[in-house]
Amino acid sequence: MIRTEGLTKRFGPVLAVDRLDLDVREGDVYGFLGANGSGKTTTVRMLLGLVLATSGSIEVMGRPMPRSAREVLPHVGALVEGPAAYSHLSGRANLALFDAMGPAGPRSSRARRVDDALDQVGLGGVDRRPVRTYSLGMRQRLGLALALLRQPRLLVLDEPTNGLDPQGIHEVRDLLLALNASGTTVFLSSHLLSEVGHLCSRVGVLDGGRMVVQEELAVLLQPTGRVVLTTPEPDTARALLDGRVDGSDGERLVVRDTDPASLNARLVAGGVPVTSLAEERRTLEDVVLEASRPGSDRWSRS
Amino acid sequence: MIAVELRKMLLSRRTWVTILLIDALPTLVAILLAVTDLGPRPGTGPAFLSAVMTDGSLFPLAALGIVLPLFLPIAVALTAGEAIAGEGQQGTLRYVLVRPVGRTRLLVAKLVAVMSFVVVTVLVVAVTAYITGTLLLGQESLTTGTTSISGSSMSTQELVGRTMLALAYAMLCMLGIAAIALFLSTVTESPLGAALGCLAVLIASTLLLTLEAADPLKPYLLTRHWLAFVDLFRDPILWRDVLRGALLQGVYVVVFLAAGWANFTTKDVTV
Q1: Which residue in the set A50, A78, A85 is minimally distant from B92, CB to CB?
Q2: Which terminal Cβ of chain B has fewer Cβ within 10 Å, N or C?
């Protein structure tokens, strides 16, 4: 769906994106992670033809960008660095205006398209107030509605839940998953790990303009081959497991073992009460922190 | 896209307030002239202002002479300066471009919208001025016809034709300003910066025209022939300055539109 090869962008002396090979497949919910300033937004802008690459190539839906922008972009819905609208017009008027831009859909169905998009993001009942009076959350929803206006095959979303309250975030998450289930590929750029962890099937981690990880989420978060258990009798357990304990912290033990069920049976048979037991998995946070250097909005003395 | 831009412009309250304000000045002048009956002596003051004392139907041209040097260009500079930079500042530029609207197409649509603004403004000013002029200042009898600046008389038909020509010339002059402001609008991210930059060019040109030492530059200054439309009302018509003016504006338009196009189509949109 999206494929870049050696994508590089230089702003004067600053290398914003460095030889990026992005691979988003059809049907993915792709999480594009990275610290602030790691080049996420520049990459998104290059995908959409807003920023022109210094070198490298971009293919969206199998066609070169930005050369094929006229054919590709009508099938792409985008939310780039926050929503924007003509603030003196109502949300509905804004959508109608944007709908008329570019290769316009039939005029007769414009009102229906606008209503559908507003319904999808929960703004169906919005009145004629101008956008200037909207709350941050409402603007964000309107931005999403704009992205959904043409029922795109690909959604490119930059921080889509910014400014939403927890219910709003949940709604948007459900909406994106529903859209994905009906065949929309979602490219989600975010620095919110929980958001990506909840939504995405694949992630790419960007650090200092370079892709440091690109993998299925399930692979990244697979078990580490250790089991974490808690027991009120850690010393008995330690004696029973002779040397397989990697670390302990009070009642919490980390044991080298790939089969929690047999481990549990053995402990119980040995008379050790187990209060909790689970496979150790890496969190997305571990993965990202491991792969990245300190945030690139830090400029400390070195 | 042109239709969208026109709709945006015509639906904006600011457009109409601006037109109203521009229109207010010549109307005020007409009222003052009618009340006081103190016209400038022939050959002094804004173009045509002495002539309108005897013939109100010339007032559209006097009004044009009043708004053309400053009022209209300010409005055009603001509107055209807003074109790209304003969308950028508002954040809507990126959403317009990913619709997708081609950059060249957007630039053309903006230019058309600005020029429509000019056309509407000039027409509103002309029509209001005709009404206030004939009502307040009176009209020479239609049988003798209107007197041209050279003293011979013009038929109504001739007057209408020449007035249309003068309006068209004024619009062309504004196209020059629009092209400069539009170019600056693609360069800077601030709409106000683009408008003020354009006004700086306007003021510099006006200033240099009064300076004898700037004589070698004068033929190329933006505002050099702006008031040449007056020559259209001589008998016979004095084409020289009008044609030079038209040519000069044409060069400004081509150069700045080309620069604006080259800049905008190769620019990274990071706003």
Answers
A1: A85
A2: C
